[in-house]
Structure formats: C-alpha cells, structure tokens
Design a protein that fits this description.
This is Aminoacyl-tRNA hydrolase. It is an enzyme of class 3 (hydrolase). It comes from Flavobacterium muglaense. This protein has 134 residues and is an alpha+beta fold. It contains 5 helices and 3 strands, in the order αβαβαβαα. It has a domain of 92 residues: Double Stranded RNA Binding Domain. Strands 1-2-3 form a 3-stranded antiparallel β-sheet, covered by helices on one side. The longest helix has 21 residues. The N and C termini lie far apart (82 Å).
Length: 134
C-alpha cells in the first residue's frame, strides 16, 4: 500500500454542512465528502483490493466506492485532514489479517488433577449415602 499513490486517487467534494450554525451554514461549504474507487485504485494490489472488499463490504457501495463524510469542524481544510486520517485508519483496519490460532494440548498433569478431583468428590458423595443394610 503506497500512501502517496492513494492520496492522489482520493476525490474530495465540499458541500454545505447541515445542522445548527445560523447564517454561516447557509453560505459556507465546510463539510467534506471523500470518495475512493476501490476498483480503479493503482496503489493497492489485487490481494489487498479483495481483502478490503470483504472486510469493508458494509461501507462500500455497489460500485465499490468508499464514501466518507466529515463536518466536525467549521474549517473545510481541517475537515479534509480529519476525513483523510479516518480513511487511512479504515484502510489499515481493513487490511489487518489476524494471525491463526495455534491449538495447544492439555497438559497431562492437568488431566490427572481433574480426574483426581472428580474421584475425591465422588468419594465424598458416596460417604453421604445411607448405608445399604441388605
């Protein structure tokens, strides 16, 4: 994954932010919408694209577009920085492959201890029974 290539593939669009803010909201386009085309990306290998398609399937559109919004700040530049940072964090999470779990054997001492404990409990319960007088 090359960050420089990926940054050049990102498309930004500034739109008017919704919500409270008075007259400023009506005239300033501070919300930033980032879109990234996973299919056309040259900064990612085919394996990385396939992995991202699986791991980010809920975030992708039908055309394999990733769309992120940010309207946290009143500054368009700051929103652009935030959404770009969020994009790279999302990519990092999407490309993470957990290492396979190694199955471990149960130690023989642990098995012996468990069986001994079962026998002790069984003996204890046997002593609680009423004696058999037949």
């Amino acid at each position: 994954m090359e960050n420089i290539t990926l940054v050049s593939e990102l498309q930004y669009k500034a739109v008017r932010s919704s919500g409270a803010g008075g007259q400023n909201v009506n005239k300033v386009s501070s919300k930033v919408v980032l879109s990234f085309d996973l299919k056309k990306s040259k900064g990612l290998s085919d394996e990385e694209k396939a992995l991202l398609e699986i791991n980010l399937s809920s975030r992708l559109t039908d055309d394999l577009l990733l769309i992120l919004n940010c309207d946290e700040d009143r500054s368009q530049l700051r929103n652009k920085e935030i959404v770009t940072k969020r994009f790279f964090e999302l990519l990092k999470k999407g490309l993470f492959v957990p290492k396979p779990r190694k199955e471990t054997k149960i130690p023989k001492a642990a098995i012996r201890k468990r069986i001994k404990n079962k026998k002790n409990i069984s003996q204890l319960k046997q002593t609680r029974k009423k004696p058999d007088l037949d």
